[in-house]
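Q&A log
Question type: sequence-to-structure
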Amino acid sequence: MDHTMVAKLQESLKRYCLSLTENHWDAEDLAQEAWTKALSVWKFNDHANPQALLLRIARNAWIDHARKYKLYMRYMDLQRKEPQLEPDSDLLQLEIIFQALMKHLTPLQRAVFLLKDVYDLSIMETAHCLQTTQGAVKAALHRARQSVEGVKRELEENTLSLPHEVDNKWLLRNLAIAYELGDMARVLELAVEEGMEPMVAVSIANNEKMRVTSAAAKRGNIQGRCHFTSAA
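Response status: OK
Response body:
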């Protein structure tokens, strides 16, 4: 692809990004992100319509940013503890899953299950994050996987109800939103908030690998791991 074609694509992409973001700073960032993603596509230079590909990537990226911003604003509202907690069907399934995990798994089991089975960290990485041994992680993971069978049954039978206590509602909603935002560190902090040794909880909050993973918005597959099938 020659320089003339690249310049034309860049100009077209910038105009499109500006129409989406309505400000030059965000448009520049979005255009750069679109180029980065497009160039990672195999044989981008040979694509039949590279301009359409670039614009589609930019549009999808902007939609994703808008969705995450909306979730972030909900999260900030929750942190301010507004008086009313309105139901949200988009997050309800995740809240139910986390409620089941909180009920059936101990704090350590929840942490190990989330790190190893949901976020796909290795045994060694999980042990490092939790400041414990690989043997302890393996033992907790074995017990957690056994307990998850109870979680699956309860979800499949649709017998689990969300708590009435306001504090517990806030916890589950914060968990669901942090998970949707890809904030792995915050998910772990909340999931082990009660019952985990203080030093381990501090380690989770400060662990650099979790922060880096969160910054990359890595998403786990908690629904798949729990085989969530309820229509709730």
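Response note: Residues 211-218 have pLDDT under 50 and may be disordered.
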